[in-house]
Amino acid sequence: MSEQKYKRIFGIVLDSVGTGEAPDAANYGDEGSDTLGHVGEAYKGKLEIPNLQKLGLVNLRDKEIMGVAAVEQPLGYYGKMKEISAGKDSMDGHWEMMGLPVMKPLSTFPNGFPDSIVKQLEDFSGRKVIGNRPESGTKIIAELGEQQMQTGDLIVYTSGDSVLQIAAHEDIIPLEELYRICEFARSIVNGPEYTVGRVIARPYVGPDKDHFVRTANRHDFTLKPTGKTDLDYLVENGVHTVGIGKINDIFSGQGIEEGYHNESNMDGMDHLDHVMAEDFTGFCFMNLVDFDAMYGHRRNPIGFGQALMDFDQRLAKVLANLKDDDLLLITADHGNDPGFKGSDHTREMVPLLAYSPSMTESGSLGLRSTFADFGQTVLANFNVAGNDEGQSFLADLK
Questions:
Q1: Backbone angles phi, psi at 328, to 5 degrees
Q2: Neighbour tally for 395: CB within 10 Å
Q3: Residue 359's closest CA among 330, 324, 317, 319?
């Protein structure tokens, strides 16, 4: 066994911050997608992300982000990762990062859910299902929210990903009831006929369609990992694991010893500051979802860019608080290009940034052939054997 290189690893997933079409983007109808590139274009030279820039975010690209140039000497190491999983959802991306690629496509519902699923939901809940089509959450709530308030129906919808989403006004269907309905929905889409990645409770509030707001009481009921993940191997070998944001939901709590729910990106950064102040040896894994949920799906490049700049400002504190034996890894789980057609995730490569104050060199990590290289690097650092998915880049960090 080699000597442990870093005492703590902090992995930040910028949900949906892709960096250009993946080699197989054509298979998903995503040719030309480029989340970072199109956000930069929307800002016309005014996107200010100095901390991500000096970490090498632009160096890893084939072309600059409009107005943001590559730096001559990045702080650490930079590269890109491509996905081998059969989908482009958050679950696929995170599972693959943790050594469990999803090789069989999950069920999607481009024409809405079949009668068999709808009837079971209606029979269990005693409520009628309305909607039942692929749609933006904010759009379908604006359209059907007032009807839902009057009738107590369930707004059921999906997207291009493997998701079953149920929206309800918090004053009409209490959260406890909505969660119970979603738990039932989870139980009927675990295969073999239909296997859905995530069932999502989407509560909202507000008096009318002009003022509806989805709340932070969203809850994801995710398909349980179909095998061991790197998080499981870490815990089994005495390495402390912390999950911030959607991480606990994505892995159904498996392999997570300490968890924090995020109200927002900034709330997530507050949690990260708190965890960084603790004295522990282990791996902290965080997802920041606002890029995706608030701006990517809504095709809002200006809001997306502002969220990036807000994160970049908070990143300055993270960099200042890193210790010599800490390692920071920043990546994403897929793309969600706000300058692209439709409203779904986009099949893109994702950034890979690695930095520790103890580094004496910097350079390129190249194009990694799978997201699993991320988790394999974490395992290698803590001298933990996993399932051999991916190749560690730990030895390249000097």
A1: -105, 125
A2: 10
A3: 324
Do the annotations mark residue 292 as ligand-binding? yes
Of the three residues 174, 205, 222, the one that is the final residue of a domain is 222
Q: Which residues of the chain have pLDDT under 50?
A: none
For residues 363 and 289, membership in a common domain is answered with yes
Residue range(s) defining the domain that contains residue 62 = 8-104+224-396
Crossing angle, helix 372-381 and helix 90-97, to 10 degrees? 30
What pLDDT shows up at residue 1? Answer: 54
Number of structural domains found in the chain: 2
- The annotation status of 297 as a binding-site residue, yes or no, is yes
30 is in an annotated binding site: no
CA distance 371 to 349: 9
pLDDT at 187: 97
Predicted local confidence at residue 290, as pLDDT: 97
240 is in an annotated binding site: no
Query: Which one, of 330, 331, 319, 333, lies nearest residue 276 by Cα?
Result: 319
DSSP characters over 332-386: -SSB--TTSSSSS-B-B-EEEEEE-TT----EEEEEES-THHHHHHHHHHTT---
Looking at residue 257, what is its pLDDT?
98
CATH number at residue 250: 3.40.720.10
Last residue of a domain, one of 175, 190, 222: 222
Does 377 lie in the same domain as 230?
Answer: yes
The answer to whether residue 249 is domain-embedded is: yes
Are residues 137 and 251 both part of a single domain? no
Tokens representing residue 361 in the block: 């060199």
Contacts of 271 (CB under 8 A, 6+ apart): 244, 245, 260, 262, 286
Q: Is residue 336 a contact partner of residue 292, using CB atoms and an 8 Å limit?
A: yes
SS3 content of the chain, % helix, strand, coil (to 5): 35, 20, 45
Q: Is 211 annotated as a binding residue?
A: no
- 396 assigned to a ligand binding site: no
Residue 222 confidence (pLDDT): 87
Token duo for residue 24: 């197989």
The CATH number of the domain holding residue 158 is 3.30.70.1250
135-159 tens-digit pLDDT = 989 999 999 999 999 999 999 999 8
In whole angstroms, what is the distance from residue 215 CA to residue 141 CA? 12
In angstroms, the CA 26 to CA 31 distance is 5
**Closest C-alpha among 85, 155, 81, 70 to residue 118:** 155
